[in-house]
Amino acid sequence: MFEGLTEKLERSFKILKGQGYITEINVAETVKEVRKALLDADVSYKIAKDVTNDIKEKAIGQKILTSVSPSQLMVKIVHDELAELMGGEHSEINLKGNPAVVLIAGLQGSGKTTFSAKLANFLKNKKAKSVMLVAGDVYRPAAIDQLKVLGEQVGVEVYSEEGNKNPVQIAENAITKARKDGKSVVIIDTAGRLAVDEEMMNEIAKIKETVKPQETLFVVDSMTGQDAVNTAKAFNDRLDFDGVVLTKLDGDTRGGAALTIRTVVEKPIKFVGLGEKMDALDIFYPKRMADRILGMGDIVSLVEKAQEQFDAEEAAKLKKKLAKNEFNFNDFLKQIQQIKKMGSIKDLAKMIPGMNKIDDEEIDDDAFKSIEAIIGSMTPEERENPRIINGSRKRRIALGSGNSIEEVNRLIKQFEETSKMMRMVTTGGAKKMMQMMQQAKRRR
Fold first, then answer.
1. Is 20 a residue whose pLDDT tops 70?
2. pLDDT tens for each residue of 47-63
3. Residues 12 and 51 in one domain
4. Which of 33, 35, 41, 1 minimizes the C-alpha distance to 17?
5. Of 16, 59, 91, 392, which has the fewest beta carbons less than 10 angstroms from its beta carbon?
6. Do residue 281 and residue 317 come from a single domain?
7. What does each C-alpha distance from 383 to 306, 355, 401, 436 come to in angstroms?
8. What whole-number distance in Å separates Cα of residue 87 and Cα of residue 81?
9. Domain check: are 60 and 159 in the same one?
10. Same domain, yes or no: 150 and 239
11. Which residue has the higher pLDDT, 241 or 336?
């Protein structure tokens, strides 16, 4: 996601490296490279030109503080412009209503059905809403079956009417039932087409007119670039939707749709899909996305993901065990499982500042498999009391897990270092830990 754009923008800022002040000449060179980077990311020429003109205007004549270099100032200006281009502030989904009705629209293949289930999962688990999914795509039988399977996965009821080919009627009946059953949100998945056509537009417009949804979301495949923006405009002209959902943002996308769709349709991006798993859905924050594009990471989102998996009761138990030096391989395994629940290791790594430069091939999403296999080959006694693991036990563990003795030794050493560091933090030794890290850094 955005790797090419990030790399080209970073190159453009290097023009100002070592410069003591900003001039029309060095700004013009930098802005020219920024414009090329945006065009290569599939941003339309007009928008790329407007944005870079704004950047140039804001940069020229800026006073440089002694603590800020010209390149740092340019990064700040570009960051603010990109965030503004994508909407500035994030926009919440409207869930007022009894029940609140969310209408999902988009072309076939854009990921509407998957997004509908992801949204249901998000509202159920993060907003404590009682949700009903409605199978409104009456033309593609696989869509109804797919929604039922996904609904079962996330534990949400799916309403459908076998044999009924009237999506307006199905939507009305579903809302009536949802109200009767005390559901707080109804999400209506609708039919898509391979291209925008009059029949499709009439149908979705009729559903909207009849059910009067609190929120109409247009789902678009971000990998289609400017085509996604053009399709969004065609839908918005007819439907006047409330927000955009960008799917497949984790794929090989240049980022043009994410950067320009807000400007073209004047509607906010509300959610982004970042994978196939049902929890791979994020609220869209323009400023955080600008951080990622400029290689600054996204620590806020990373902390939020960690907090979602945080269990206060477990943390209290762990703190006591660490204080008594009783941290064992069962606890170590629990920590790994919590990290895995946060999502893809590759995606998490790229939220850390500077990690965007690391090649995907250097980050293995299966990195924990061998660790889990080694711990799984230990006896309950060995997991509880790692100190008893001697040479013969290591050989047995290595054989049972399909790893070498060296890998078993490496894990035990990693476990001991992790235990020591966690104990330091827990028992108030954070300052000492920092001193140890600084000493180790000086020795390298």
1. no
2. 888 888 888 888 776 65
3. yes
4. 33
5. 392
6. no
7. 25, 33, 14, 28
8. 10
9. no
10. yes
11. 241
